[in-house]
Amino acid sequence: MSLNLPIYLDHAATTPCDPRVVEAMLPYFTKEFGNPGSRNHSFGWRAEEAVDRAREQVARLIGASDKEIVFTSGSTESNNLAIKGAAEMYEKHPVGSGKPRGHIITALHEHKAVLDPCKRLAKQGFDVTFLEPPRDGVITAEMVRSAMRDDTILVTIMWANNEIGTINEIPRIGTLCHERDVIFHTDATQWVGKMPTNVERDSVDLMSFSGHKMYGPKGVGALYVRRRKPRVRLVSQVDGGGQERGFRSGTLNVTGIVGLGKAAEIAMEEMDRDGQRLLGLRRRLEQVITQNLDVTQINGNPEKRLPHLTNISFGFVEGESLMMACKDIAMSSGSACTSASLEPSYVLKSLGVGDELAHSSLRFSLGRWTTEEEIDFAAASVIRSVKKLRELSPLYDMHKEGIDLSKIEWAHH
Amino acid sequence: MAYGPKIIEHYENPRNVGTFGTQSEIKQRKDVGVGLVGAPECGDVMQLQIKVDQRGRIEDAKFKCFGCGSAIASSSLATEWIKGKTLDEAEEIRNTQIVEELSLPPVKIHCSVLAEDAIKAAIEDYRKKNGLPTHDHDHEHASA
Fold first, then answer.
1. Rounded-to-integer distance, Cα B120 and Cα B48, Å
2. B8-50 pLDDT per residue, tens
3. pLDDT tops 90 at residue A334
4. B111 an active-site residue?
5. Looking at chain A from residue 4 to 23, which residues have their Cβ under 8 Å from any Cβ of chain B?
6. Beta strands A309-314 and A361-365: pairing type?
7. Quick one: what percent of chain B has pLDDT higher than 90?
8. Nearest CA in chain A to B24
9. Which helix (H) or strand (E) holds B60?
10. ipTM of the predicted structure?
């Protein structure tokens, strides 16, 4: 079988739609185009049935009840609704009281869609603690515990990190929050649909996820909102017709929601098999690369990580030129949201990966249709490119001569 | 980032890659000047070596570069341009000429600045080694 180039190894940025998902969606563009809010005719009823079915499919994937699913436009919106909505609802002291409105705990290597809402809340009178991740990237319950205060109202810690794939101590952090009557939100964008999820077992109160990271369409996602023990309330961020039980107004994206439902159903069936297979492929990729190149580093905890994602730093080569050299492979240096900037990844920096290594890091994320042949091709291409760029690299020469790069006085621009 | 064809051509077939010896060997050689500019944490380091003949003409030049495609292309082009020039002539090369020749995008102007700095640093190093008067340069670079 011949390889189709370029090879897509950037599934953490987005995934292709599964053809089964597209097929499920198609009738809802044309024939079944009704607005589920139309209560007076069959077009509306059939659209509502489709949404109800999707809600059940999504709920089943995460062990929730269908009444706990709020459909949104994706994880960014879900994160904003969860974080701002909970902060406003559970504030301890009103604005102007002279005291912080409440205390929120998050971490420095969260996605911008969590960090920026938190920063906005900080400007509006909330206190926010940004936990510094340790070198292995894993946020533990102990770290959260030591940051907790009497006025802590919300903890928001992602389930799995989008750049390095490390998995935080979610059930334990959730349990801790429940002991302290603190609301626990997790951005599970990279997790749901890939890994078994049960909001009861895992003690999650609010959870964000997106369709397009699990072979569904873009522009649709959901927020799980716990209904009992505790019943979580939120101040809505989009007001209007009162859809989604008032949590999120706006005509429902029926086609997208049908797609998300189908994607959830497929994920539930196939995630174990996919996960096992991709773990094997990822290990193969890591092994071939690290065996053939010196001075490489796999970033983040080696065990507590997603099966399909790896982030590797290559000493003495620069990331952008490395991507240019591997032009037949679509992957990412840093996350897609930051790779337009020339700054090294803030996620890797927060783990204490030196700037020069953070400049030369690649994220490989595998998906449902990634093959062994593609992995072998990608590994060979990366190895060839790194070797070529190291022949060009004055830093690699110095390293081989035994010169300590940190001892050189560099002229900073 | 979408690069122009000249950047890609230099990146894929860089001219004059290499050195005239290890760092310690080069220190001993009076006919070779070295410019090492940039910093690893900024994502760009350029090393330019010039071999100068008896009459003060650059007879050969070699580079190594840790950096993006534009940085590699800028240093490759610099070696091409300075070969055969006298030190005074090579000193006249400006980053704006490199920007123009390679059609560097605005966010990559600093790569051309680095190449100009590397040329000047290599010339300065050669002059110092040989007890020749060195010039103080005004670092006036076009920024866009």
1. 10
2. 999 999 999 999 998 889 999 999 999 999 988 778 899 999 9
3. no
4. yes
5. none
6. antiparallel
7. 80
8. A401
9. strand B58-66
10. 0.90
CA gap A372, A166 in Å, rounded: 23
| Partner-chain contact A320 B69, CB within 8 Å | yes
Q: How many CB pairs under 8 A join A and B?
A: 84
Q: Alpha carbon B24 to chain centroid distance? A: 20
User: CA A411, B1, B6: angle at the middle one, nearest 5?
Assistant: 80
Q: Which residues contact A130 (CB under 8 A, 6 or more apart)?
A: A106, A107, A108, A115, A118
Degrees (nearest 5) of the Cα angle A143, A145, A150? 140
How far off is chain B from A269, nearest CA to CA, in Å? Answer: 39
Q: State the pTM of this model.
A: 0.90
CA distance A358 to chain B (A): 9
Question: Phi and psi dihedrals of A153, rounded to 5?
Answer: -115, -25
Q: What integer pLDDT is reported at residue A349 of this predicted model?
A: 80
CA dihedral A150, A151, A153, A156 (to 10 degrees): -80
Q: Which long-range contacts (CB under 8 A, 24 or more apart) does A50-53 make?
A: A50/A254, A50/A257, A50/A258, A51/A252, A51/A254, A51/A257, A51/A258, A53/A258, A53/A261
Give chain A's mean pLDDT. 94
pLDDT mean for each 10 residues of chain B (144 residues): 87 96 90 93 90 95 95 97 96 96 93 96 96 68 46
Percent of chain A with pLDDT over 70: 95
CA–CA distance, A19 with A15 (Å, rounded to integer): 12
**Chain A residue with minimum CA distance to B39:** A410
Of B22, B40, B117, the CB nearest to A356: B40
**Peptide bond between residue B14 and the one before it cis (omega within 30 degrees of 0):** no
**Which residues in chain A have their CB less than 8 angstroms from residue B110's CB?**
413
Nearest CA in chain A to B110: A413
Q: Please, is B17 exposed, middle or buried when counting C-beta atoms within 10 Å of its C-beta (0-12, 13-18, 19+)?
A: middle
B65 is catalytic: no
Contact between A360 and A316 under an 8 Å Cβ cutoff? The reply is yes
Amino acid B39: pLDDT? 87
Q: Do B66 and A395 touch (CB under 8 A)?
A: yes
